């Protein structure tokens, strides 16, 4: 007599929690409804929407004459369509699989939703972890003075954009993208416990990271409106009114203008793209702790240049 095998019950797979646990083992506090996509893929999709919407907004801003005074690194023509295929390749073929594998292996995007205190503690920890991994990879691997590594990693592709177009934040070779974008995001995430399965934490981290990267590569520095302006050699002479405003800002800085001038200051990464030997941390939104401690902050660049000259001289002497 043939054995009748009962059909398997159709249980929806709850990605975003523990992929190996039965649904009855889902801890309390997780989101009460599920999307048909794994949480890592949802987070990637949110980052794509934020990245490309804000990237297009920056592109549109280039056509607004009133904003030209804040565009400190301009190009003759738009680079947007030239940069887009490389950017999409990196986001689809490098970032998406990396994020999904983190979830499959239970390193991130799994577990219970974060307790509010853990949520708040994880944010600065993520910022610090991002800073350390970004700095080490960027300075000691991508900018290592080694001809073989330079040719292999091709960090020059990213530097070729001069940080003058927002979406150039992701314009780079795939291996460079893995080191500079993937690892500083996903390694700290796994080290803080993976961020749990709550959507808000992951969407916030991914969205904020996208906006920061876009701004620091946009060629805009919105702090110029809040910083005292002084004449540089070769520039159009300032009017008496402009000089008066600059002195007033310098002598009587208000809390609001000082805060905005510091918060919106976008010079660090712009200087990195120009000089290559300063500001290896992310520019905007980064505490720049390592750049400060290791004396590579962009506004210490004269000293940094002297260090580099000394190192080149030493290597030359030792040859
Ligand atoms: Zn850059
Ligand atoms: Zn670089």
Summarize the structure.
The chain is mostly helical.
Walk me through this protein's architecture.
This protein has a domain at 36-221. Helix 1 (39-61) runs parallel beside helix 7, helix 2 (80-104) runs parallel beside helix 6 (174-191) and helix 3 (116-142) packs antiparallel against helix 6 (174-191). It contains twelve helices and no strands. With 319 residues, it is mostly helical. The structure holds zinc ion (2 copies). One zinc ion (ZN) is lined by residues 158, 163, 217, 269, 273. One zinc ion binds at residues 138, 142-143, 155, 159, 272. Keywords: Membrane, Transmembrane, Transmembrane helix. Residues 125-225 form the Fatty acid hydroxylase domain. One of its GO terms (molecular function) is oxidoreductase activity. It is found in: Membrane.
Give the topology, please.
Elements: H1 39-61, H2 80-104, H3 116-142, H4 147-153, H5 156-159, H6 174-191, H7 199-216, H8 240-251, H9 255-263, H10 267-275, H11 289-293, H12 301-318
Helix pairs in contact: 1-2, 1-7, 2-6, 3-6
Bound molecules: zinc ion (2 copies).
One zinc ion binds next to helix 3.
Strand content: under 5%
Mean pLDDT: 82
Proportion of helical residues: 40-55%
Alpha plus pi helix count: 12
Let me know the largest β-sheet. none
Backbone CA Rg = 23 Å
Order of helices and strands: HHHHHHHHHHHH
Q: How many E strands?
A: 0
What would you call the shape? Answer: globular
Q: Ranges with pLDDT <50 over ≥5 residues?
A: 1-30
Q: Measure the end-to-end span.
A: 86 Å
Structural class: mainly alpha
Bound molecules: zinc ion
């Amino acid at each position: 007599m043939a054995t009748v095998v009962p059909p398997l019950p159709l249980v929806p797979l709850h990605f975003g929690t523990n992929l190996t646990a039965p649904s009855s083992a889902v801890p309390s506090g997780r989101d009460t409804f599920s999307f048909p996509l794994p949480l890592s893929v949802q987070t990637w999709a949110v980052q794509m929407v934020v990245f490309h919407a804000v990237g297009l907004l920056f592109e549109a801003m280039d056509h607004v004459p009133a904003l030209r005074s804040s565009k400190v690194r301009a190009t003759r023509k738009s680079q947007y369509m030239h940069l887009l295929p490389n950017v999409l390749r990196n986001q689809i073929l490098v970032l998406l699989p990396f994020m999904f594998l983190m979830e499959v292996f239970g390193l991130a995007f799994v577990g219970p939703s974060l307790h509010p205190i853990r949520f708040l503690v994880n944010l600065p920890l993520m910022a610090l972890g991002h800073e350390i991994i970004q700095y080490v990879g960027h300075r000691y691997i991508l900018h290592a003075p080694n001809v073989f590594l330079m040719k292999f990693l091709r960090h020059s592709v990213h530097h070729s954009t001069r940080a003058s177009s927002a979406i150039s934040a992701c314009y780079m070779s795939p291996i460079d993208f893995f080191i500079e974008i993937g690892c500083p995001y996903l390694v700290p995430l796994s080290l803080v416990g993976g961020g749990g399965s709550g959507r808000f934490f992951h969407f916030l981290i991914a969205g904020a990271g996208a906006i920061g990267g876009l701004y620091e590569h946009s060629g805009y520095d919105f702090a110029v409106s809040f910083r005292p302006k002084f004449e540089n050699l070769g520039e159009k002479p300032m009017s008496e009114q402009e000089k008066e405003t600059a002195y007033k800002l310098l002598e009587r800085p208000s809390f609001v203008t000082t805060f905005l001038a510091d918060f919106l200051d976008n010079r660090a990464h712009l200087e990195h793209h120009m000089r290559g030997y300063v500001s290896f941390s992310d520019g905007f939104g980064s505490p720049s702790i390592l750049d400060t401690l290791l004396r590579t902050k962009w506004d210490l660049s004269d000293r940094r240049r002297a260090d580099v000259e000394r190192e080149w001289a030493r290597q030359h002497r030792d040859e």
